Please model this.
Amino acid sequence: MAKQNKTAISPTRAEDYPEWYQQVVKAADMAETSAVRGCMVIKPWGYAIWEHIQKNLDNMFKETGHVNAYFPLFIPKSFLEKEAEHVEGFAKECAVVTHHRLEAGPDGGLIPAGELDEPLIVRPTSETIIGATFAKWVQSYRDLPLLINQWANVVRWEMRTRLFLRTAEFLWQEGHTVHATKEEAVEETEKMLGVYATFARDYMAIPVLTGVKTESEKFPGAEKTYCIEAMMQDKKALQAGTSHFLGQNFAKASDIKFLDDQGQLQYGWTTSWGVSTRLIGGLIMTHSDDNGLVLPPRLAPTQIVILPVLHKDGDHGEVLAYCEALAKDLKHTFYGDDPIRVDIDKRDIRGGEKSWGWVKKGVPLRIEVGPRDIAENKIFGARRDEDGKFSMDRDEFVAKAASLLEEIQNGLLTRATTLRDENTVELDSEDAFYDFFTNNAGFVKAHWNGSPVIEEKIKNDLNVTIRCIPLDDTDGEGVCIFSGEKSPRKVIFGKSY
RNA sequence: CGGGCUGUAGCGCAGCGGCUAGCGUACAUCGUUCGGGACGAUGGGGUCGCCGGUUCAAAUCCGGCCAGCCCGACCA
Model:
């Protein structure tokens, strides 16, 4: 009561966005830092969200013909050295294993012993080790396309880390494919980008721009990097997924060759694509508010939580039985392809506190059931995406639950889309550009002549980068706002995570 | 990896040479409460991040290391 006007999360987004983010992660009990530098512990609530991301994405990968496999955590140093750009890109952030044994030291401690002939790199990504394997698997054009995915952890020794957004170790999936022709490989790259964009929109309720990275932003060793870019509530861009057309670079480095239908030996054309636990960071920063996490129903570990109102002197049995029956009916209802996920919180703690706990965890619908409701065969509910509560006939609620969840899901997408569109502007002069990014953040669409020198300059001046060259470009040619030279198309600029 | 700040109970913090280390909150028990963060009483919980140095005496001063946060460079 005394705290009625206060928000659950302090500071608020407006007061201190980065700190707010950390507090949301903590308040929702999703993850925490560990004793190991830069590495996080993903707690059950955070991991459950990842499991739903995995499950749905995995289905989409299967539907597009991919199968899962698993490759080693360790990559021989010599493998990483095979592709020049690749080495250069990742060398600065690799964990290196040099020994395979520990021996007792003089002070009772342990010292590494048994030095390896060749150091092993903890994978920062798996192109090279998978390439070496694919070289053995691929002999004939009949072996193609080879469509493989792996769910794994990778390590990139980051200097500056933030839970979910950038950690030294993170979980992801990496798809790796080999194709007989360039066209087919490009098609695959674009297809998987489409899968990511669809997943982001339909499951995460995050609208994304699809596009291509500039030369300076592309994946080390790729011919072309496609990406999905989302706008967070602080108007900064988050790269939420990438899909790479690798040309024949890795095929040549790993010797992936096949005999075509003419009996000619050819190098394969490869792709790779991935999304990571960073998506959870994007989810938080897209939807959450000053009361904590807000989850899109499709990914919420619990979609509806039932909170029995238990008076000390009242009949707990009756209330709980009513809740159990309600939960059972809801679980027999489908939302999307799955039964609604319902939880009853029977913990004996204060109602307000219990309720706030679920607000902070972002559960889409909270239902309170007390003796008064039971007498009238009603429920009392609250939506996470709106203020206020509603009273509803019990059976009517069961019938409407799935459509309510869908309404919340769609509402979140609409809200996020509106925010993005309201903060996307088209500018046609350098002054306007500098003026915008000096005072604001957001997406700016503007003509650019393709020069990396200009990219470098605006990065230094404003900390702004080209997020992507949009795929759905309809603007056509124009004049570069920085150089006055001819520009083939408009590109998207923004500050990024 | 550079610059700044920080590390004391689960969490948030005070104490910054002096003898028994404290407060809020959370936790446990009891009572009164109970439909959006209750109140009272009692109680449990700490090798003051780690290692070393200075000192009669170190949470407190010094050095090194580890971890975190912010700002850069780098990156999903």
